[in-house]
Amino acid sequence: MLDDPPSSLGVAAHHVDPESAPPGPVVATPRERAAPQPRLLAGVDGLVAGASAPVAAGLHLHDDDEAAAPGDEVELDAVGARVAGQDAVPPRLEKRRGAALPFAPQGVGVAAAHGVSGGIDGRGRRRTIQCPPMGTLRLVATPIGNLEDITLRALRVLGEADRIYAEDTRRTGVLLRHHGIASRPVSLHAHNETARIREVLVALDADEAVALVSDAGSPLVSDPGIRVVDAVLEAGHRVEAIPGPSAVIAALGVAGLAPQPFVFLGFLPRRSGARRTRLEAYRDRPETLVLFESPHRIGALLDDAASALGPRRACVARELTKLHEEVARGPLDELANRFRDGARGEITLVIEGDRGATRTAREGDR
Questions:
Q1: Can you tell me the distance from the alpha carbon of 295 to that of 302, in angstroms, rounded to the nearest whole number?
Q2: Fewest CB within 10 angstroms: 130, 184, 238, 258, which?
Q3: Is 110 found in the same domain as 43?
Q4: Range from 36-45, 223-232, 247-256 carrying the lowest mean pLDDT
Q5: Domain carrying residue 218
Q6: What span, in angstroms and rounded, lies between the C-alpha atoms of 4 and 213?
Q7: Closest CA to 165 of 223, 247, 225, 239
Q8: What is the band of 41 on the pLDDT scale with cuts at 50, 70, 90?
């Protein structure tokens, strides 16, 4: 804690390229203001002190800057921000020009809200101001079947990760061992996702390398993870995609139907009536439909699709990239008969859009 509460001074430092910036804290220089301002208390100890100036403070970029990253020099504009007591609410986050930066709501001290270790005192003495590190959660796409369908970048990220959260630890374990990665995945699935949030945030706060994978393909697409991602973003950390295999894109490629525009519907409701209602909403739409379905319900889904959408072409893509891959194309009613007793493996269904609506849309684009 500083000897005296400082005067409210603007603190400015020029933004630098994070690639060329030397590591270490950011040093700010005081900038005098014409009119006297209420006093504010800086330093980490500010949370337990308390003052009365009811003005908020924010951390933001210069107007000509595009983005900021941990270690960048930024502008700290402290205009008499009051310092709250021990019951202060934690700082929220605000997006500024594409970068998530801490923002102190009214009632939270500038220093404490930003994790600042220092400040500018009332005599204009230089103090060190350092923002806390921002962790990164990496969403890593994994093979949808063939273990060789994984990018070099994904392998590097998984190999360097301190923690790998996986929807299916056994399946992910097979992938990791196949590629010589010794990490042991931690389960994160639909039934424990909420309970894992705090653990993930603690790891990111400690600047650990954290990766999230699903059992196949890209995380979050018909898989758990959105609640974790929401919490990570809310806490001010980054979320980064490591792209790779996708059953949706693979099925669109082999279906022989218009690949765009398309709508991905994921898994439809289990009950027939609810499925038909969802499908009927797309009866007059030009978009190609892409769905996931379990092997024992594919026949019923094809029946409902034929009833709701009428005679349309479709494609059942089963076990894509695997040894027993099958791609069946034909009218919906014929495919319904073919798969009436179900099938084996993972299935992606592609259904063409309404041809009349497609023609109308194309004519409107001319």
A1: 12
A2: 184
A3: yes
A4: 36-45
A5: 136-245
A6: 50
A7: 225
A8: very low
